[in-house]
Structures are given as C-alpha cells and as structure tokens.
Amino acid sequence: MANGAGGYFRKMTQQRDIVSSERVIQAPAPLIFDVLADPRRHPDFDGSGSVKKVRSDAPARLSEGATFAMEMKRGLPYGMINTVVEFEEGRTIAWAPKLASGRGARFFGRIWRYELEPVDEGTLVRETWDISHESLRLLLRYVYSTRFRKDMVKSLRLLDGLVTHQS
C-alpha cells in the first residue's frame, strides 16, 4: 500500500520481545545505508523526537565496534552511548545503547537494528527494537512496545523522505 514520498508500508510484526516495522523505500540500499551509518544524521530520522544531537566525538561513519554518544530527551535530558554490534555494509547495522552515566548498565540489553534488502520497488528497510536480552524486558514490553512501534513507522517515513530527496 502506497504511503507518501514514494514509500510502501508492509505489515508490521511484533514478537514477544521484538518490535519491527518495515517500509519499502524507492532508493538504492547503499544510499539508505550511508544515512544510517552516519550518526550525525540520526536526529534527522528519529521518529520519537528524543535524539537531540550526536556528541562531537562520534565517528563520521559507523563500523563494527564503533561507539557514538547521543544527547537525548524524553521528558528529561539524558545521554546514551551506543556501540555498533552488527555491521554488514549496505545490509545491516545495529547498535546497543547504554546510559552515558553508566548507571543501570546491567539492565541494558536492547538492540536497535536496521536491515536493508533490495526489492523490485527499491529497498525494503526493516527497523527493529530487540529487547530479547534485556533484563527489564517484561516492563519494557508492556510500557514501550506500542509507542516504539509508532515511532519506528515515523522514523522510516522520515528516512524515506531524506533519501528519496537525495537520489
């Protein structure tokens, strides 16, 4: 089904500890991946509105094991340090966030993942919030899964707008 900016939505799936949203974007995977791998672009496609800016010491391009810190705000300001835990050029990028303060690190086990797959209409982009290794997953599952699903739909729409205006 068509949905503005040349994108198409596909069915969103939610498993017990994984929330995903997919969108077909009419742009090549390398172009989309370049935006995802540039931490300075993350505020541009953050559907939650919580990513305010990337700290100045972030790498220009992410790679396996790279870390980057973000200034965030959901009610109150806070910082997150993200470590890239999956990286396949042009296909998959995922990072694991932890509070920049170091507090509560033992409770964090979530992963934000983007997977890209070429399709006839362009590129299928899947954003996933995976809390399967999260200590607080029972709480997070019930408190945030619906909200994050809506945020992901918006993130993919924003990402679509960014790359379809570049190509």
Strand-helix topology:
Blueprint: E1 8-9, E2 13-15, E3 18-25, H1 29-36, H2 42-45, E4 51-54, E5 67-74, E6 76-88, E7 92-99, E8 111-119, E9 122-130, H3 137-164
Plain-language structure description:
- The protein is an alpha+beta fold and 167 residues long.
- It has three helices and nine strands, in the order βββααββββββα.
- The chain has helices spanning 29-36, 42-45, 137-164, and strands at 8-9, 13-15, 18-25, 51-54, 67-74, 76-88, 92-99, 111-119, 122-130.
- Strands 1, 2, 3, 4, 5, 6, 7, 8 and 9 form a nine-stranded antiparallel beta sheet that branches.
- It starts with 7 loop residues before the first strand and ends with a helix.
Q: Give the end-to-end Cα distance, rounded to a whole number of Å.
A: 22 Å
Q: What does the average pLDDT come to? A: 86
Q: Let me know the number of strands.
A: 9
Helix share bin: 10-25%
Q: Top keywords for this entry?
A:
single chain; 167 residues; alpha+beta; 24% helix; globular; disordered N terminus
State the gist of this model.
The chain is α+β, with helices and mostly antiparallel strands and 167 residues long.
